[in-house]
Amino acid sequence: MEKIGKRFEGKVAIVTASTQGIGFSIAERLGLEGASVVISSRKQNNVDEAVEKLKARGIEVLGVVCHVSNAQQRKNLIDKTVQKYGKIDVIVSNAAANPSVDVILETKESVLDKLWEINVKSSILLLKDAAPYLQKGSSVVFISSIGAYQPQSSMAMYGVTKTALLGLTKALASEMAPDTRVNCVAPGFVPTHFADFITKNDAVRKAIEERTLLNRLGTTEDMAAATAFLASDDASYITGETLVVAGGIPSRL
Ligand code: NAP
């Protein structure tokens, strides 16, 4: 981390679901590179704790409670950002839910709705609210998953919502060009709370490591580095793309 640059000096970045895990590391990375970061999640105490951690690292940060499927809280997230910083340069849409391990045809309708609502629809609605404030040269990054390419049976419908983000990336890249670039990161397996049920099982973890060319799980910092690249001007000629960050787990040619 000592050698990172300052690609986000003067920029304002919103990261959803960013009080722990991948979202937190993305906020930290963008902040260390000079961005004013706006972090959010469902629980006030998680927001407060994460704000303190980022401030302790010298990062300019605003924390706002935002359950991404709550319209009022989404609007408040954008309003508070604009009131404090006056504009938006980067949005990282990172929130997701995986409420069930049922196979698709046994998944309850309410669960199907929740998956669509949190993993896809909320991202679209947040961007609708943010659109008037997005600057020329701004950038959106969706967080998908390696499971977008080959949904695993224990999380198949979750995988399908992540596949939808690949299409959304293409469609919005076209719709928001040339002023805003839209890209996507597809993480492999990263030991976070979200992935506990996979990465804390020794046999499953070993099996994943064995089919990962780089022989290890990913880190939240790996995901943050890739996201920061796509959000930065280093990627100023890249839009509509998904970067797989999965240590070589097969995705597509
Ligand atoms: P995580 O460590 O469990 O963190 C989840 C964060 O999201 C927390 O800050 C949580 O805080 C917040 N959150 C949860 N539900 C929310 C909601 N409805 N609205 C707003 N905030 C919410 O998860 P993670 O592993 O970093 O996952 C982040 C993203 O990476 C997800 O899109 C996931 O699909 C993707 N991903 C993860 C992996 C992996 O192996 N970990 C692999 C592929 C893709 P509160 O509890 O306070 O809300």
UniProtKB/TrEMBL annotation:
SUPFAM superfamilies: NAD(P)-binding Rossmann-fold domains. Gene3D superfamilies: NAD(P)-binding Rossmann-like Domain. Pfam families: adh_short_C2. It comes from the Eukaryota. PROSITE patterns: ADH_SHORT. Belongs to the short-chain dehydrogenases/reductases (SDR) family. NCBIfam families: PRK07231.1. This is Tropinone reductase-like 3. It comes from Liquidambar formosana (Formosan gum).
